[in-house]
Amino acid sequence: MMTPKDLKGAVVYYDGQMNDSRMAVSLAVTAATKGAVVLNHTSVIDLIKDTTGHITGVTVRDNLTGETYHVHSKVVINACGPFVDAICKLDDPNHRNLIIPAQGTHVILPNFYSPANMGLIVPKTKDGRVVFMLPWLGHTIAGTTDEQVELTDRPYAREHEVQFILSALSDHLRVEVRPSDVLAVWAGIRPLALDPTKLDTQSLSRNHMFWLNQLPDCSRSPEVNGRHTAKWLKT
């Protein structure tokens, strides 16, 4: 299926696959079996502090009923992905943002675009970006884009992002990847992390970053960014 034009060679490597939505459900169910109270469709609207400024919990709102609740704890972990900064600003309105939101779009194609046990990744397209095709639940998942966007809880795939993926794949295949072959499209927002100790924006990271509140008796710990990645290279 690949076009031989300008092809110099290839490398086979092994990567892990995971279903992130099933993992989220599994974590919630596991936590519940261990005694945790699990809340969905719930927003943190305020932080609870004692007289010394120590964070002792959060106030949450049930977005389905509008009811609010107070949740008390010894430690508050802010692991809200691209929304980390909004929680930090509940603690400090002058908080300097830790996150640059970047949107990634993926498309689902028929399974004939990839063998059952083999995918394709082009680490550098003609404009320097990355595209891939991987077998996924009987179909082919293809992506991705990486563009800075305004933060929203309802991201959507834009036409030019989908067209970039299809065009970039077509450059490396014997066949044109047609818009009519697209079975589904979705987009998500990645939390690219800024190093809070730096003054510039050149230190964007896709690794995990932990930042502890500098108040005495630290009570808040934001977890910024992070991706699940595992590779094994065969030489």
Question: Overview of this structure, please?
Answer:
14% of the residues lie in helices and 32% in strands. The protein is built from three helices and 14 strands. It has helices at residues 20-33, 84-91, 159-170; strands at 12-15, 42-49, 55-62, 68-72, 76-78, 99-109, 120-122, 131-136, 139-143, 147-148, 184-193, 209-210, 220-224, 231-234. Strands 6, 7, 8, 9, 10 and 11 form a six-stranded antiparallel beta sheet that branches. It has a three-stranded antiparallel beta sheet with strand order 2-3-4. Strands 5-13-12 form a three-stranded mixed beta sheet, with helices on one face. β2 (42-49) and β3 (55-62) form a beta hairpin. The two termini are 23 Å apart. The relative contact order is 0.19.
Beta-strand residue fraction: 25-35%
Largest sheet: 6 strands, antiparallel
Looking at how many chains there are and whether they match, the oligomeric state comes to single chain
Are there runs of 5+ residues with pLDDT below 50, and where? 214-219, 228-235
Order of SSEs: EHEEEEHEEEEEHEEEE
Concise summary:
This protein has helices at residues 20-33, 84-91, 159-170, and strands at residues 12-15, 42-49, 55-62, 68-72, 76-78, 99-109, 120-122, 131-136, 139-143, 147-148, 184-193, 209-210, 220-224, 231-234.
Keyword list:
235 residues; alpha+beta; disordered C terminus; elongated; 3-stranded antiparallel beta sheet
Write the layout of secondary structure elements.
Elements: E1 12-15, H1 20-33, E2 42-49, E3 55-62, E4 68-72, E5 76-78, H2 84-91, E6 99-109, E7 120-122, E8 131-136, E9 139-143, E10 147-148, H3 159-170, E11 184-193, E12 209-210, E13 220-224, E14 231-234
Parallel strand pairs: 5-13
Antiparallel strand pairs: 1-14, 2-3, 3-4, 6-9, 6-10, 6-11, 7-8, 8-9, 12-13
